[in-house]
């Protein structure tokens, strides 16, 4: 599966469960760990876990085998390693603490387009 398709699949799964402030960061050439990071906020530990589980379910339905996941038990944050795409789902205070967007600020960043946005592509 192409990276862009996998990013869209992850974003769609997050949006399906009302993920907030979804951001995609292109880190190609900046790290050898992954090519894209998708970051989303959840409102509670249950919300974070539900969104992470939904992403895992949707990518598995498309034949993608996740390399690993972390943090699903606690619900404060979850990291899903899909290989070329890493998905971070966090509660707002945790996201503010780690501030991954600022950490990768030199990388290309884009906000997910929501269904109601005028510029839907």
TrEMBL record:
User: Where does the record place it?
Assistant: Cytoplasm
What role is this protein assigned?
Functions as a ribosomal silencing factor. Interacts with ribosomal protein uL14 (rplN), blocking formation of intersubunit bridge B8. Prevents association of the 30S and 50S ribosomal subunits and the formation of functional ribosomes, thus repressing translation.
**What is the predominant subcellular site recorded for this chain?**
cytoplasm
Query: What's in the GO CC field?
Result: cytoplasm
Q: Does the keyword Nucleotidyltransferase apply?
A: no
Fetch the NCBIfam families from UniProt: rsfS_iojap_ybeB
Please name the GO terms of the biological process aspect recorded for this protein, alphabetically. cytosolic ribosome assembly; negative regulation of ribosome biogenesis; negative regulation of translation
Q: GO molecular function, one example?
A: ribosomal large subunit binding
Asked if the record carries the keyword Ribosomal protein, the reply is no
Which keywords describe this protein according to UniProt?
Answer: Cytoplasm, Repressor, Translation regulation
Quaternary structure and interacting proteins, as annotated = Interacts with ribosomal protein uL14 (rplN).
- Origin, by domain of life? Bacteria
Name it.
Ribosomal silencing factor RsfS
Q: Which Gene3D superfamilies match?
A: Beta Polymerase, domain 2 (3.30.460.10)
Pfam families reported in the protein's UniProt record: RsfS
Give the similarity note: Belongs to the Iojap/RsfS family.
